[in-house]
Amino acid sequence: MAKSDKSKERAEADETPSGADDTTAGTTEAGERIEPEAGASPVDAEGDSSGDAPGRIDDPLGDDTTPRAGDHSVNPTPADDPLADPDATPAAASAETASTDEASTSYGPDMPADAETPAADSADDRDVPPRSDPQTRASAAAAPAVQERVIERRGGFLPMVLGGVVAAAAGFGLSQYLGPNGWPFSNDGAAFEQETRAALEQTQSGVEALSGRIEGVETGLSGIDLGSVETAIADLTDRTAALGTDLAGLSDRVGALSSDLEALRGDLGSVADGTGTLAERVTALEKAPMEGAVSPETVAAYERELAALQETLSSQRDTLDQAVADQRAAMDEAFAAQREEIATQRQDLETMVEAANASQAEAERQAQLATLRAAAADLTTAVRTGEPFAAALEPLSGADAVSVPEALSAVAAEGVATQAELVDTYPEAARDALAAARVAAGDEAGGNRLAGFVARQLGARSVTPREGDGADAVLSRAEAALRSGDLQGTLSELSALPQSAQEAMAGWTARAQARADALAAADDLVRELNNQ
Length: 532
Known about the structure:
The chain crosses the membrane at residues 157-178. Keywords: Coiled coil, Membrane, Transmembrane, Transmembrane helix. Residues 1-146 are annotated as: Disordered. Residues 299-366 form a coiled coil. By secondary structure, the chain is an all-alpha fold. The radius of gyration is 68 Å and the shape is rod-shaped. The protein has 17 helices and no strands. 67% of the residues lie in helices and 0% in strands.
């Protein structure tokens, strides 16, 4: 009975589709494990699961695999299968091994996971031949081998062209560098060095002048003596404290006088009470019956006593009034003196405060003048070196002490031409002016035609100053004045040129005039600040 059931289960396992996972022979389609019947030995159960085969069967393909405990069908791995593709990856083998392990570790519902079955004990002593899956062998054999392609890189025509271009550029740069012009450098380094040296000397002189002016301003500020003002303020403070002490003493005296007045009022009240009592007694005596009347001597004595009392009262009243009047007069006099002294001290204090304010204002003005003078010195240096001076002109533009001339504000952003630039560009401008003057004078007429043509073509002119009213003589004297640093003299000489010559060198003249005007305006500005 047990053998027939095992045969059926194996037949059902062989009919399972190839896409399903491999299962053990001891497990049904519902996932339940079939246990051997009671009384069946482990050897009989194992023999039934292998069918009619002997205990050890040699696989015709050379497989020799020992199954795990409880396994009745084990698929061979790609490493054990001689027909499998040698290039196949181990993924298929690992998948088959995992499915086999899952099938081997499944337990029945009534058996615990850690229980040892008789089949497992018998599997350790016997070797059961495995069954190979034909579909698995076919799929493994059908997998194609992966071939590696090697691509060779070859050079082209473009790198050769680029190499030639780079070599040509390098040769051209080397020839230019070794040539007479020294490209990219020029040969006018001496003029640039001379101009730079002149600018540095002018800057150094401007810095020295500015240092002297700043030292003068500091000396002037240190010469302002505020010690007298501070002493007067301290004296006034002491006098004010003494005045407060006197006022406190006067207040004490007024309090004592008030106490004396209260005491006098009390005495007057007592006298008034005594007088009233005496008057009542006199009235009672007058109304007494004549038979009980006193003697005339007694009445006379009472009258004398009353008269003396009235005289005493009148004298005390006069004394009190005089004392009050004296005290009031003394208080008025003291208050008047104190008021006068307070007014005097207030006037002195106001005078000292005004003097201190004036000193402070003067110190601030001197400090502002020092700042403006420093800015003017920077401006003069910038004008001489040809640099823009808008930043140096800004403090002067916002100050009330001076007014900035138009000659400075118009060229502050760009600056003016330097002396060296005017000297370098003068020869070309002079040749243009001389050519225009010769054309206007008609030098080509008569026998001077050939000489005038040659002079215009060669640009010949006099480079040493000479006398005369001709354009060449005027230009030679103007150049001599320019090279000596007399820019105003140069402009004065050029004003004697003919109109055509002046128009020809109008650009150079405008730049020279802008520099001359800026220098003159800067000097006037410095002079105005120094006079304040």
